[in-house]
Recover the amino acids of this structure.
């Protein structure tokens, strides 16, 4: 017999009601569970996604029937219930049903202050959320009174040219419609997308009978949770406030009571020991049954305890990791589930460094701590600039009066965010926490001027775009200059967690590390080796730059060789150190890549100084700079092209690598360096470099009477190299896809120049995602597949990998795993993320979603 | 029984000797044919490629045996015999066997002058070609004498510290070795590669008994040919000089006789009517049998006629076409063979415009006319600059003191070549003729200074790099400024020839034409339509540039629309004219492509003027220019990205196209415009533009009450568009591969920046050819194949084509034909070449090579 699916506009939640989180949302499901756990939950009705979607489209359910589900004529609240708690939703509305008549009744039964508080709360919420009036119209009075109620009602009438609705059904219609529509707005859509929800995600709503929290006898409300939301350590935290509703206890902290006995003041434990004990019991029941740490929202109404909700504790990423580790250790969830529960990018937050507490701080701005962590960078005043700087790998702090959804991409690009306006729930704060970017909001003592690109602090000091500051999102401060930091958040739970990830994952995670410092960091982050060591960064240090420039200005190969000879010992020393730090783990060194003009000054002063240093006429220096200028440096004389044009450079580098390998092998296992050729587009390029490298290897072995083994590979960055991977693989041991450049060339799109339209492109769905953040599996990915297949066909033992930003992106990692790659390589701070993403991908393959 | 292949070091050429041009070269084969035709050819011995290759490697054949083949002790000559005549070879050496003893004998029998001439010629040739002495050491005396001989011998002894070899065998060894080695030299290798020979092509040599041409009775030498080598018209041309050898008659024109009766002086026809008649007879026999126009080299020795050789007439491309047309019309060869005989690139020469004879000329340089045709362009003084300018589509004239093989690529890039030194056989002259580039050499009155980048003319005027001049390679002059020209060389034979090509070919040839002028030219060149009409060039005209800049500076969409409204009538007028000129042939218009900053000034003065014109502060203009600057403009905000960012531009263009189509359709067949979207990388881009274009089409049809049909297509320029061709083709009617940009992106290589290393890359064989000249069928070609296959799978009636420089390259055309493309599109002057190349490709498919 076929099952009849009947459409229910609403469902009263009971132990056995048919509630499905995929239809009614997480909150409806959660409330049903609490009911099943015998918690004293007030009567609740759930509206499905379908119903709410219908409301937004103009199909209002029968609200009289909904209200009648509550019997009598109670006050009710409406709260959002999206499929996943983290996807958010519109704000709750309490005290629906309040009107003039009921107010008069309550003045009699509860007194003017309590009745006025209840009515005022409803009028204000309704005016702002339903009638879209300005928040400022309704200042909260210190003591709610009849006068305040009358003023609020008058304001409402003036602004709307209508009476405040008195009919509870009409009120509910307004609330449901505004919440349903708010969910469909563009900004809400963007916000939930930023949180990982699909744009078309549904919203459910729950209508719940109010437990008033105001009244005779002990009445009030509070929240209780069982961990420290920052560290995740076990600890009862929360507040209780007499004669209050909702989350008032968290707002009015001065008057609120502690929950456990506390030397700082009175506590609920002392005031109502029975109720306290019941709450603790309920908390334990929740943890075991809900398999998570919950924040319990409770109301005491005239001595009776009501549990309104138990929502997941809002927690830092560090705490999130500790919670799942604790749940797994208590056998409440499996390790695999623990791994699956943490979105990889959340780990970024744990890894953000903190300001070193030992360092002196020069505070220039004090604001509200809105998102933890600290970062230093150049001040910028627009999202576009932030994106442009990020594209050039420059750290920046984005300072804005306030942020809007248009800024989300800029905020993603910034290392830290500062706003003049707003509070902990402002757009900037919410988004920054979601992104794990340190953020300070409400820095009202400074003036941020986007036009003049300046920030003026309280004492009149002007900070211009480009000045370096440090933002401390944990303390809510901005400090002058770049302040010393310590790596942060990684505690024992974090290490256990990543250890579990390593047990599960089946693809290596290497790191992009250019210096011995990077290498040390990489080891701490548990990288399986170095996948990309960019040697050119080594040339930018002051003492090396001079030799580099002499090399560029050398007219004869001999002079060039002389200049390079100065660089050889420096490179060798760097490599030796890196090999030693990596202690036998593989190190893949990419030969010199950038165009030479990157090493030359571009301003007048720099050119004059260079002319002096080289003892050449300025005109000569200028001419050489002009000659090296390129129309499209990305597509110019760089990488292997430079290696073939000025072969002395690669010769020097190969020598430095081989000598360092021998030095680092002394007294230990032999180091087997990996040498990678950049920007290859033709097989012959590989053959030529290979022959020269081989010759250098032979020479070094003879000179040093040592035995060397090394592996040669190619960085596949041009579409042509991917197409010709079969031929190329015949001459090398590994292929590493440089997906940054490969994406640029496949799209014909420079990352540095895409900023001006990428935002609009992603918003309009022209590109489903920014291909520089998440690998374009469809287009660029096909080149990876072609390259991998042809490479492996030519050489079955070929090592395959990707390096570049995509190496730290979960979807991209899953793609590479699926294609049978041997490793991904990403920047040091992304290594933990990549380890987790790799583990989750493996779990997904083994057990499905 | 197995055939024994025996290696013959040399073969005496007889009617029945076993001579194979693939082993002995064209000249050996040709001489055998002449013997078979009963022409009086002196005894000749052929040395095979294998023998000559052996000589270069040190394995000298038995020269005594070679000499004995001639009986007695005659004088002999050695001449090169490569597989194809046009591949060249080292210069001939005459009079081998001359020595002191024989000289004394000849003084007695022939007189001092004749004997001295014979000996001096040999000493000089031997000294320069075999002993590599400086040419200048041996000035030719007006009357050869014993003193001159003695001086020459002494010079030889001083320079070589050795006696001049007296033994004929030793002399022959020296000659054979030097010729064999010269063929293997790098410069010879490059030269023959420029002429289409494989680098490892072999050289044969022929050793021939000398017919002396000096002696008692009528003696002398001459050459006779039966066409005008410039126009190809039938006409006996050539010269005869008494008491001379080799090609002396062509050098000493003042003393030489005409062949036919001529009012200007005495003729061979009058002097020796019998011999003249025999020569004409031989000439006719040669034409019919050799199936080509030959230049007959003859010697009269004491009244006896000897035919030394009959080589293909060196002819202009115009003549070459007329010759094959004549041969085909006389049924000596088939039309197909006629088509196959002309290398497509030779047609370039025919098409080069000539200076308009009606125009006044200001001559600034007089030199030697070395390669016909005329061209105007900017003066440049290095091959690198020439290549850089060509990459930017800028015409330039390359001026050098002299050219070397290193300059070949620069000469290819230049529109004309001027050298201070050298004669008609100098490197510059030979290469220029091969390339079909107009050339003037030996302009000894000017001083060309590469360092200061100036050319100083006889009257002391200094011309700097960048100044525009016109080079007339037909007259041997350089003129001031850009002089008016007329299209040239296309005569009735040329038109017949291309008509035959059209009958054979099975792929359309369209033209890249941006203006009504281009369109008119394209029709004259027989294009099947316009394959690429770049609309942005229309915006660079003075009056339009201002509106364009206003558009760029508009802050609001309305202001932008206003500025574009000014451009609309201009674009519409252009399109209307183009549609009318093309008279129903298809016209494919590409929507706006370049980045906006190309339209802004970049020098201080230009910025100030623009600020005045726009009535804005300079700082404002500067800021906008800075904001639009891109790191990699090739990969930036251009093409469809601009079309989506500022949709008003495409809207205006679509409107102009549709209105023009309706205007041009009036009173004739309806025009069906083709609209092409540039730089697509995602399918959604096409969908969005398509929707807007469709809306404009509907609006115009309503407003104008007309019916419009149009075709929408995509320019496939990014690797991603090629990969996604299946999805894209679902939304459009045609795909045109923009192989210029596609090559840049597939290689990750900017054409503008490749100049600095491309030469070295091709020379070293890193790239087998410059992929911007000849389509990289291997890499870029695979993307074309993928795109074509996926496109056709999605839409079987999809039109496929390429546009860009490769559309005019023979190999690239053959590739596109092979892949079933519908058309190629190339620049106007390449259309005839493309028509021929398409025909040759079709013939090759039908009949094999």
């Amino acid at each position: 017999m076929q099952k009849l699916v009947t459409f229910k506009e609403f469902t009263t939640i009971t132990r056995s009601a048919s509630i499905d989180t995929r239809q009614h949302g997480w909150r409806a499901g959660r409330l049903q569970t609490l009911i099943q756990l015998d918690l004293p939950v007030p009567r609740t009705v759930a509206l499905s996604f379908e119903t709410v979607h219908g409301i937004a489209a103009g199909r209002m359910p029968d609200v009289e029937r909904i209200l009648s589900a509550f019997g009598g004529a109670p006050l009710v609240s409406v709260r959002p219930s999206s499929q996943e708690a983290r996807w958010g939703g519109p704000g709750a509305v309490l005290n629906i049903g309040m009107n003039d008549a009921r107010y008069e009744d309550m003045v009699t039964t509860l007194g003017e202050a309590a009745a006025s508080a209840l009515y005022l709360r409803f009028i204000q919420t309704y005016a702002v959320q339903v009638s879209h009036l300005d928040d400022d119209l309704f200042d909260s009075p210190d003591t709610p009174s009849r006068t305040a109620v009358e003023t609020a009602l008058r304001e409402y009438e003036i602004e709307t040219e209508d009476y405040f609705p008195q009919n509870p059904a009409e009120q509910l219609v307004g609330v449901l419609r505004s919440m349903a529509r708010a969910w469909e707005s563009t900004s809400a859509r963007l916000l939930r997308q930023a949180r990982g929800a699909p744009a078309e995600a549904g919203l459910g709503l729950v209508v719940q009978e109010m437990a008033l929290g105001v009244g005779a006898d002990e009445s009030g409300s509070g929240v209780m949770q069982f961990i420290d939301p920052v560290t995740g350590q076990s600890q009862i935290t929360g507040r209780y406030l007499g004669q209050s509703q909702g989350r008032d206890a968290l707002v009015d902290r001065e008057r609120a009571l502690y929950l456990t006995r506390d030397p700082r003041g009175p506590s609920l434990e002392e005031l109502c020991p029975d109720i306290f004990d019941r709450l603790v019991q309920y908390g334990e029941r929740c943890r075991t049954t809900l398999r998570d740490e919950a924040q319990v929202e409770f109301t005491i109404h005239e001595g009776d305890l009501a549990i309104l909700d138990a929502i997941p504790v809002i927690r830092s990423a560090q705490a999130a990791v500790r919670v799942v580790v604790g749940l797994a250790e208590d056998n409440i969830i499996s390790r695999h589930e623990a791994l699956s529960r943490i979105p990889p990018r959340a780990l970024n937050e744990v890894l953000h460094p903190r300001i070193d507490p030992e360092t002196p701080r020069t505070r220039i701005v004090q604001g509200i701590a809105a998102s933890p962590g600290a970062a230093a960078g150049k001040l910028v005043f627009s999202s576009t600039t932030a994106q442009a700087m990020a594209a050039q790998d420059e750290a920046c702090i984005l300072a804005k009066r306030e942020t809007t959804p248009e800024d989300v991409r800029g905020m993603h690009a910034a290392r830290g965010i500062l706003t003049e306006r707003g509070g902990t729930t402002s757009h900037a704060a919410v988004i920054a926490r979601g992104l794990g970017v340190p953020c300070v909001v409400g820095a009202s003592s400074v003036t941020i001027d986007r036009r003049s690109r300046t920030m003026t602090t309280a004492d009149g000091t002007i900070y211009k775009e480009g000045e370096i500051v440090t933002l401390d999102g944990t303390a809510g401060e901005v400090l002058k200059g770049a302040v010393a930091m310590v790596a942060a958040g990684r505690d024992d739970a974090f290490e256990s967690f990543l250890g579990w990830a390593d047990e599960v994952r089946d693809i290596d995670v290497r790191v992009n590390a250019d210096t011995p410092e990077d290498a040390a960091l990489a080891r701490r982050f548990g990288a399986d080796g170095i996948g990309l060591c960019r040697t050119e960064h080594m040339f930018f240090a002051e003492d090396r730059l001079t030799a580099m420039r002499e090399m560029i200005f050398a007219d004869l190969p001999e002079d060039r060789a002389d200049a390079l000879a100065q660089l050889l010992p420096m490179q060798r020393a760097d490599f030796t150190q890196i090999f030693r730090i990596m202690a036998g783990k593989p190190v893949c060194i990419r030969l010199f890549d950038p165009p030479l003009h990157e090493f030359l000054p571009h301003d007048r002063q720099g050119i004059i100084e260079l002319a002096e240093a080289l003892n050449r006429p300025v005109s000569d220096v200028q001419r050489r700079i002009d000659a090296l200028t390129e129309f499209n440096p990305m597509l110019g004389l760089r990488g292997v092209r430079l290696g073939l044009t000025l072969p002395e450079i690669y010769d020097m580098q190969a020598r430095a690598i081989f000598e360092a390998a021998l030095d680092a092998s002394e007294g230990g296992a032999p180091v087997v360096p990996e040498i990678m050729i950049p920007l290859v587009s033709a097989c012959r390029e590989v053959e030529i470099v290979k022959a020269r490298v081989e010759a250098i290897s032979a020479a070094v072995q003879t000179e040093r009477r040592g035995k060397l083994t090394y592996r040669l590979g190619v960085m596949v960055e041009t579409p042509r190299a991917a197409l010709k991977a079969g031929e190329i693989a015949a001459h090398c041991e590994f292929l590493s896809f440089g997906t940054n450049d490969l994406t640029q060339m496949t799209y014909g799109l420079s990352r540095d120049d895409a900023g001006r339209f990428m935002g609009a492109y992603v918003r309009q769905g022209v590109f489903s995602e920014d291909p520089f953040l998440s690998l374009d599996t469809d287009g660029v990915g096909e080149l990876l597949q072609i390259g991998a297949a042809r490479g492996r066909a030519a050489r079955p033992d070929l090592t395959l990998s990707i390096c570049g930003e995509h190496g730290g992106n979960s979807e991209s990692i899953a793609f590479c795993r699926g294609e049978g790659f041997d490793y991904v390589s990403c920047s040091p701070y992304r290594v933990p993320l990549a380890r987790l993403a790799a583990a989750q991908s493996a779990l997904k393959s083994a057990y499905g979603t």
About this structure: The first helix of chain A runs from residue 21 to 24. DSSP finds 34 helices and 31 strands in chain A.
